[in-house]
Specification:
This protein has 15 helices and 7 strands. It is an alpha/beta fold and about 350 residues long. The chain folds into 2 domains: about 10-190, Rossmann fold; about 235-360.
Length: about 350
């Protein structure tokens, strides 16, 4: 959403990577070969570690070891926590690094929905000057599917005519939305979703100070659908309990407990619960997506706790096309609520009402 915060699961603070050893090896091999592609498209589902991989690769490049076949050849991307180059990359203070991403609109004071050309021009400025240390320059675009036409074309010029020792790392959740001409000039590195065990390992590494049990970690991993970033966000707002509370509201469809709806909606509207509301929105759409996939004959490999029975009961009440249309309506209502900054309680109540009316027909 447009005002996503930079929280504890922001890419620059996550590492070491789990589950992407093959991708790390691909990048290290390209770097140590001395024939590095000047542009990479790193794609895959949201929250699986693409941006973390890009920041780690940028650290290796800016450290300068191995790319010219001299010095120690790195075997992976992980660096020591006190490595000075890595620290500057993590904090976006390295003079030879530019991160291109959505920025705040100074007029509206809200995060833009897309990356505009002024943001992309920061990359042009970096490539127009020499490296501070005579080494490489790196641009990270996070995420490339958020570039608008003008900013994408500005980056295309850099990729088409790159200066020496310059590389662009494009992170993309939905690579099909990246400008085709830009996409075609990149070496494409696809990352897959992690297994539940790998997601649970990430949770264990980053929530060692919590009371998360093995069972709840496994349940969070399943609910996150292979995305450790999403699993961490769920854990930060007690996502399992939130998912359970949502299913309790939906369990009686087409009848619904009105007081329970209002209590739930009040929680979503409470000050300081913006992230909880955001996670609820994702959980609702995720449940509907899995229901539709099941109806289309492609059920998820593992259903999150409590969903299977509810979906099995509700699925026959509407045709698959009607479920898809309902998903589109819910998606549009959530986007409208966000874009117009509508009262969150009313948005939640309207969503429940939309589901109730559709299923009661």
């Amino acid at each position: 959403m447009a005002d996503d915060p930079v929280g504890p699961t922001a890419p620059r603070t996550i590492g070491p990577l789990i589950g992407h050893a093959a991708a790390e090896k691909t990048l290290v091999d390209a770097w140590t070969s001395g024939q590095m592609p000047n542009a990479w498209l790193i794609s895959g589902p949201k929250g699986i570690g693409k941006a973390s991989l890009a920041y780690m690769f940028a650290s290796l490049i800016l450290k300068g070891e191995g790319g010219d076949l001299f010095g120690d050849v790195p075997v992976g991307l992980e660096m020591a926590p006190d490595d000075p180059v890595s620290a500057m990359v993590i904090n976006s203070t390295h003079p030879d690094l530019v991160v291109v991403q959505r920025t705040v609109n100074e007029k509206t004071k809200r995060m833009r929905e897309e990356i505009v050309i002024d943001d992309a021009r920061k990359a042009s400025g970096l490539f127009a000057r020499t490296s501070s240390a005579g080494g490489w320059r790196v641009v990270i675009v996070d995420a490339a599917d958020e570039l608008n036409k003008n900013s994408a074309n500005a980056l295309l010029k850099l990729v088409e005519e790159p200066p020496e020792k310059a590389v662009v790392l494009l992170v993309a959740h939905r690579p099909g939305r990246v400008l085709l001409t830009l996409r075609s000039r990149c070496r494409h590195l696809r990352l897959g979703a992690l297994t539940s065990d790998q997601v649970a390992a990430v949770l264990a590494a980053h929530h060692a100070d919590t009371d998360t049990t093995a069972a709840s970690s496994a349940a969070l991993a399943t609910l996150a659908e292979g995305s450790p970033g999403r699993a961490l966000r769920l854990a930060s707002v007690d996502g399992l309990a939130l998912h359970g509370a949502m299913l309790e509201i939906l369990a009686d469809l087409p009848d619904m407990d009105i007081p329970a709806q209002h209590k739930f909606a009040d929680r979503m509207a409470r000050g300081g619960n913006t992230e909880t509301y955001r996670v609820f929105s994702e959980l609702l759409l995720g449940w509907m997506t899995r229901l539709i996939q099941t109806g289309a004959g492609h059920p998820p490999a593992m259903a999150p706790p409590g969903e299977a029975d509810l979906s099995a009961r509700l699925l026959p009440r509407r045709s698959l096309d009607q479920w898809v249309g309902l998903w589109e309506n819910v998606t549009e209502d959530l986007a409208k609520g966000q874009g117009l900054n509508l009262d969150r309680k009313q948005v939640v109540l309207n969503l429940f009402s939309t589901l109730q009316e559709a299923i009661a027909q």
